[in-house]
Design goal:
Length: 454
């Protein structure tokens, strides 16, 4: 036993020494780019080049995938989820030739979006080498998400200075601000803050990560100024969620906090889990009070809709009808899919050939049913389940404490993203890129430490 412990200690010491020599690289800048690239669209006059800017966030992981295949000399054992994703891509390639695919170009673009989202699982292990680098990436993600959330709060506090001059989705649809605004104190019309994006309410996603990561770092053994800054980011994240009135982001944020606290307790860090939970409760209440002071009674009324009725009824009213249609009418009409490029960005930007070809998908299950039917749903859900179990194994590798802590954080964050399949389409969006990047980064480090099943 002593010899084995000595070996483990030597491994940890070697990893710690190696981490000091791991400089900033592509992984760190990639995380930053996923916030900076969309933020360009809040600048005046950039809507004319919206397509290339939006596409650039998806092209970057594809370029990294090509570079990794050509240049990488680092051999990391593939994760179990990779085989599931290969099967997904094979199915989507077949669906290109589905008779209801409106156009080959549109279908190919839709397939490319799927592939761009999942590619970080393959190349991220080559760029993230140690738990210390992984922790650094999580800190960078907190900074990006936290700044995003603070901007979102400021957009309600002082909209004349902080709110973008134009909103792409609203202006394109010609709907005005009614659907994306609410009445605040003294009758003031408040636009749901976009943060560093150009779509009203879109700050809610990054704000959920700011809330989780901010609380995690606030109770970590880091300098006091970093803990205070983390706490500010966490509060801003929750306040931004309240102000966007995106209820699912609030539910997801709370769920991520619960998962992290439970896993931390399971790791034997009961004191840290208790401290985290207590601080989370205080921030949830405090941020709500700040949001109400800025957004007024509308914030209270919106949050009350989560508790006025049972959860199933609340979900049914919001997104449940689409889930019923997916596993009812669509399952009967197109159990093996209805063609590619009929919904989402590919349909919006490349159009669909022929009247009546476009379909609407508000939740990921509907998108999967359109794109590949029940086989698509089974394969992608399988990839998510396999990934969650692998991340939990890393979180339980207590002999590598720093890695296990990172595993707990990433497990909580990625489970939050995965839960969005019931209310959003995360795996054809940037949040899906972040999911697979974190999964790939954690897998790469775990494999270097010899953790089986990671």
């Amino acid at each position: 036993m002593n010899a084995r412990a000595d070996v483990m200690n030597a491994q940890q010491a070697a990893a710690g020494a190696a981490s000091a020599r791991v400089p900033w690289g592509f992984a760190e800048w990639f995380v930053i780019s996923q916030t900076v690239l969309p933020a360009i669209l809040i600048l005046p006059g950039t809507q004319a080049i919206r397509l290339p800017i939006r596409v650039s966030a998806f092209v970057l992981p594809l370029v990294a995938f090509v570079w990794w295949n050509i240049n990488s000399e680092i051999a990391v054992r593939p994760s179990r989820a990779q085989s599931w994703l290969f099967a997904v891509m094979f199915l989507l390639a077949l669906m290109l030739f589905h008779p209801q695919t409106p156009s080959f170009v549109g279908g190919l673009a839709h397939l490319a979006v799927y592939f761009a989202v999942m590619t970080p699982l393959f190349w991220a292990p080559a760029f993230v080498k140690t738990p210390e680098q992984l922790a650094r990436i999580l800190w960078i993600l907190l900074l990006c998400s936290g700044v995003n959330a603070i901007v979102g709060v400021l957009q309600v506090y002082d909209p004349q200075r902080w709110l973008p001059a134009e909103f792409s989705r609203v202006s394109m649809a010609g709907l005005g601000l009614g659907p994306v605004s609410y009445v605040g104190p003294n009758g003031r019309v408040i636009v749901r803050p976009p943060g560093l994006f150009d779509t009203p309410g879109s700050v809610a996603g990054p704000a959920a990560y700011a809330a989780l990561l901010g609380l995690v770092f606030a109770v970590s053994a880091i300098p006091a100024w970093k803990r205070l800054l983390s706490l500010i980011f966490a509060a801003a994240g929750l306040a931004a969620i309240y102000l966007t009135q995106v209820r699912i982001s609030l539910v997801v944020a709370l769920g991520m906090m619960i998962v992290y606290a439970l896993v931390a307790a399971r790791q034997g860090r009961v004191g840290r889990a208790t401290q985290f939970a207590a601080l989370a409760g205080a921030i949830v209440v405090g941020a709500f009070m700040v949001a109400v002071s800025l957004g007024g009674q509308s914030i209270v009324d919106r949050i009350n809709t989560l508790t006025n009725r049972d959860p199933l009824t609340v979900y049914h009213v919001a997104r449940g009808v689409q889930l019923e249609v997916t596993f009812g009418q669509m399952l009967t009409d197109a159990p093996l899919g209805a063609g590619l490029g009929r919904w989402g960005m590919a349909s919006g930007y490349f159009g669909t050939a022929g009247a009546g070809k476009a379909l609407w998908a508000e939740i990921q299950f509907t998108g999967w049913m359109i794109d590949g039917g029940m086989p698509m749903i089974a394969l992608y859900v399988g990839a998510l389940i396999v990934t969650a179990f692998a991340q939990y194994r890393v979180a339980r590798a207590l002999q590598f404490s720093r890695l296990a802590q990172c595993g707990a954080v990433i497990l909580a964050a990625d489970l939050g993203t995965a839960a969005l399949i019931f209310s959003f389409t995360p795996f054809v969006a940037q949040v899906g890129i972040q999911y697979w990047f974190l999964a790939g980064a954690l897998h790469g480090v775990a494999q270097r430490y010899g953790i089986e099943g990671a």
